[in-house]
Design brief:
alpha/beta, nine-stranded mixed β-sheet, 43% helix, single chain, globular
Length: 336
């Protein structure tokens, strides 16, 4: 049996077309989801991002990140250790700032960690995810040429990082005009600064104002933040799409694929940001936008059941069944 898992520490389902966004930020993921099972009620396990990803490590649910991590770090009881005894090889490709990279480096059979540029604006090709996807593609080609029948490849992505990164390509196409519009409409003080700030500097200040709750944001700045978040999500979609295409090209209908995130983002509450008040940052943790996450699984129909499935190669559809981050590892056990 073969499986590919792609996890993101943070990515809102509100940018996915298959979850109702019609701006086409995630075309590759949306096309892939057509032959997949989309869960509409997937929830983060906890309000803490650390707890959410800790259950990926341990495979169990506990009240504290520490307890989950201790469980995961026990080789005797860890699910990776169990896979090893069952001759299931495990491979991890992760970004340096992904929350599970340190753990995976110790407990997967093979783990490679990547770091790249992290500044207000960056070129797509110089990001850590670009390096990661290229190397993961090489590993998938090696596995296709080998006789290995049982393996798990896990891509651990940071998702949309905090503070956010702006793809240079987006900035060159439409970002600068949006920034200029936001500067012009931000009031007298912003207009006076506009002549002194280039786009990258303006974005750094905007991120600082948003993440540190310095002052309420204008409507244009809220729209600009939404566009920036979506643009980076589009870049993630591009790279994840490359891996999904590679798997389909090399293995056809042999691999179970899961794409999910540990938490969403409160940026998308009612399609725009709330007024930035210090007390509301806590409240946002309880919002649907922050707590609901994407969870999509592509599950091949066994060959012996193809006739019953009317020759449909994958189980597909939508489900309102409640699932959580902690369900990821049990799903792997069911598959293998």
């Amino acid at each position: 049996m073969k499986s590919l898992i792609i996890t993101l520490d943070q990515m809102s389902l509100n940018v996915w077309g298959c979850y109702g966004n019609f701006d086409e930020w995630t075309p590759q993921l949306d096309a892939w989801s057509v032959n997949s099972f989309v869960f509409d009620q997937a929830l983060a396990t906890n309000f803490s991002a650390g707890n959410n990803t800790a259950c990926w490590q341990s495979g169990v649910l506990s009240q504290t990140e520490k307890a989950d991590t201790e469980e995961a770090n026990s080789e005797k009881s860890s699910w990776t250790g169990h896979f090893r005894t069952c001759n299931i090889r495990t491979f991890f490709y992760g970004e340096k700032d992904c929350s599970i990279s340190d753990w995976a480096s110790q407990y997967f059979d093979e783990a490679k960690i990547f770091s790249g540029e992290k500044k207000a604006t960056t070129n797509i090709g110089s990001t850590s995810i670009s390096q990661l996807v290229n190397q993961a593609g090489v590993k998938l080609e090696e596995l296709a040429d080998s006789q290995d029948e049982n393996w798990l490849v896990w891509l651990g992505l940071e998702g949309v990082p905090h503070p956010w990164i702006v793809p240079e390509q987006w900035l060159e196409m439409i970002g600068e005009s949006l920034i200029l519009e936001a500067e012009e409409n931000d009031g007298a003080e912003a207009e006076s600064n506009a002549t002194d700030l280039n786009p990258a500097e303006y974005l750094e200040q905007l991120f600082d104002r948003y993440f540190h709750q310095q002052e309420p944001l204008s409507k244009d700045d809220k729209e600009l933040l939404t566009q920036i978040y979506s643009a980076y999500s589009c870049m993630l979609n591009h790279h994840i799409g490359k891996v999904l295409n590679k798997v389909n090209e090399l293995f056809g209908e042999e691999v179970m694929v899961i794409v999910t995130a540990s938490q969403g983002d409160s940026l998308f509450i009612e399609k725009e940001l709330k007024e930035n008040k210090a007390c509301e940052r806590i409240q946002e943790g309880f919002s649907e936008s922050a707590f609901k996450v994407p969870f999509v699984i592509q599950l091949p129909v066994p060959k012996e059941k193809l006739e019953q499935a009317n020759s449909q190669k994958y189980y597909s559809g939508r489900s309102l069944e409640l699932v959580q981050s902690v369900d990821l590892v049990p799903t792997l056990f069911d598959w293998f």
